[in-house]
């Protein structure tokens, strides 16, 4: 039987995404760095705290984060594992509602405030419209998560960022899908006086043809769309019932399966079985 493998858009096998919490004023500088190097990511905001202290204002959210993803981080940043279900529902849904009014699209992801989560909370989230949630412990690896509601990043930006970036840039085995996922808080660069670290990282890893630069939700949506592909029993053809174009490697050939289309895969062994 032939070999069919999922690829990222364009037939790539590597993706990079960034994840930053709290919506502090230093996000302005961080977004500027990302934009200069073509890096894309997700910013998890507490809508109930916007404009307070050094946080970005509600009025600037849409323009500031254009081209990136705005995601939930709860309304007021409580340690939600200690909260009753009723408060968790309010914190998540009201954060979604306010953020959606600001950005004009559906907010479907979050990062856990203070890294606080539990099985009880994870079971609540799908009913609240949350499709992924990032945790704090890092994996040090470059894989996709088994559980989108316990999505481990590769690393915090202060933990082996450049050595991991060098390893990631050198990954070449196309039988694997690689994802580098970096998280943190933008204010940490001010506190640690190390903005040059993010400049170095983005300049070294940005602008590469073999990397898909994506937001958190784009990765979730892409993988879920792939899981909805309808393959024939013989693997001779596939139908894509979604609106998302999916790329496959079919016996080493890169094939794009456009949304709503059925595509012949021309796997010789599968076809021969029908003769």
TrEMBL record:
Q: Which UniProt keywords apply?
A: Signal
Gene Ontology terms: biological process = carbohydrate metabolic process
Q: Which Pfam families match?
A: Polysacc_deac_1 (PF01522)
What InterPro entries does UniProt report for this protein, alphabetically?
Glyco_hydro/deAcase_b/a-brl, NODB_dom, Polysacch_Deacetylase
Write out the GO MF terms: hydrolase activity, acting on carbon-nitrogen (but not peptide) bonds
| Residue ranges annotated for the NodB homology domain, each copy included | 13-132
* Superkingdom per UniProt: Bacteria
Membrane-spanning parts: none
Q: Give the matching Gene3D superfamilies.
A: Glycoside hydrolase/deacetylase
Question: What PANTHER family is this protein classified in?
Answer: CHITOOLIGOSACCHARIDE DEACETYLASE (PTHR34216:SF11), PTHR34216
Designated name of the protein: Polysaccharide deacetylase family protein
């Amino acid at each position: 039987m032939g070999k069919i493998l999922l690829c990222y858009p364009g037939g790539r096998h590597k993706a990079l995404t960034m994840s930053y919490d709290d919506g502090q004023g230093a996000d302005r500088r961080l977004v500027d760095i990302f934009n200069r190097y073509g890096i894309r990511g997700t910013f998890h905001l507490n809508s109930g705290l916007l404009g307070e202290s050094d946080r970005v204002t509600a009025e600037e959210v849409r323009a500031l984060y254009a081209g990136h993803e705005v995601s939930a981080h709860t309304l007021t940043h409580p340690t939600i594992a200690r909260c009753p279900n009723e408060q968790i529902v309010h914190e998540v849904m009201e954060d979604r509602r306010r953020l959606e009014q600001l950005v004009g699209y559906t907010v479907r992801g979050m990062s856990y405030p203070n890294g606080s989560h539990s099985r009880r909370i994870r079971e609540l989230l799908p009913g609240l419209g949350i499709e992924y949630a990032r945790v704090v412990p890092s994996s040090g690896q470059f894989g996709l998560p088994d559980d989108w509601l316990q999505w481990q990043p590769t690393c915090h930006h202060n933990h082996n960022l450049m050595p991991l970036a060098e390893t990631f840039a050198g990954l070449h085995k196309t039988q694997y899908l690689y994802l580098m996922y970096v998280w943190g808080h933008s204010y940490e660069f001010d506190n640690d006086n190390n903005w040059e670290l993010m400049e170095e990282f983005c300049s070294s890893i940005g602008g590469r043809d073999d990397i898909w630069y994506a937001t958190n939700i784009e990765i979730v949506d892409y993988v879920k769309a792939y899981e909805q592909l309808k393959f024939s029993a013989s693997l001779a053809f596939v139908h894509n019932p979604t609106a998302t174009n999916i790329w496959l490697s079919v016996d080493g050939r890169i094939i794009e399966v456009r949304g709503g289309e059925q595509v012949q895969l021309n796997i010789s062994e599968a076809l021969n079985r029908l003769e």
